[in-house]
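Below is the record:
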Amino acid sequence: MAEHTGDERTADLGYARVDIDRARRTGDPEVVYGAGKTAEQVVDILRTLHERHPERAVLATRLDAAALDLLAAELPDATLDRVARAATLGPMPTARGTVAIIAAGTSDAPVAAEAALTVRVHGSEAVRIDDVGVAGIHRLLEARERFADADCLIVVAGMEGALPSVVGGLVGIPLVAVPTSVGYGASFGGLAALLGMLNSCAPGVTVVNIDNGYGAGVFAARVARNARER
C-alpha cells in the first residue's frame, strides 16, 4: 500500500518515493523507468501513478518480458506495446499538435515505437514513417508530404546517423534526432551515430542520448502542444 507523505507530493512505497506532484509542476506525470526494477515494483508504481492520475494515461518504459507478462495479469486494463517495450494505464489525452516519427530502418523500430508512444501519452498525435533511411533516399523524398506539415519531428537512425541531417535540409521544422545502437562494430553501440548527429550541418537539429526514444518523445510533444496553443 502506498503511503503519502505529509505534503502529498510523494507516495512512499518503501523501495521508491513516487513523485505524484510532477503533473502539477510540469504538465506531465512521472513515468516508470522499468530497467533495473522487478516486475512487481513496476506493477506497484504504475498502479500508484494511475490511482493519482486516473483521468490520463501513465507510462512505463524499458520493460522486460517478465514485467510485461505480470502487467497483463495484474493490470488487465493496461495497454502493452511489446515492440516499444512499454505499457500505459489510463486514457490517452486529447491530442494537440502533430509529431512525425521518422525511422531509418526496421532495426530502429523499438526506439521509434517508444518515441511514438511517449508522444501520445504526452498529448500529441504521433505519425510513424518507417524504413526511409539514406541508403534508399527516394523513400524519404516520397514521404516528404507526410511530415512537411508536422509541428515537430523525431528522426531515429543508427549506423552513421545521417538521416537527421538529410531531413533537416528538407524542412524547417523543429527536429530532435535519436541515435540508436544499431550498427556494426565501428558504430560503437551508437556512438558513431550520436557524434554524426551532434556534428550535423543542418541547422535546428537537437540530439538526445543513444536509444532515448522517451526523451525525444517528451521534447517533441511539448513543442507540438505549445505550437497548437497559439
User: Anything to note?
Assistant: The chain has nine helices and twelve strands. The chain has a mean pLDDT of 90. The chain has two domains: 3-89, 98-227.
